[in-house]
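We recall that each integer encodes one residue's backbone shape. We quote one record:
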Amino acid sequence: MPREGLKQKQGRALKIYELLTTHYPNVGTFLIHRNPFELLIAVILSAQCTDARVNLVSPGLFKAFPTPHALATADLN
């Protein structure tokens, strides 16, 4: 069986997206975020604890490290 090409993958992904948005039109997240960077970090943190706890600690985290660059260059100490 030949490997699936990029166009086929894109078509399959679009079909899955359409099915999900049809069956679940009002899905959102409980994680509080203002941009994709904050959402990504919140999702990573939520794998280790509850969304409620992430929402409590993330404002301080994002105040200290508001951008990916600030977080990436943070002093590990």
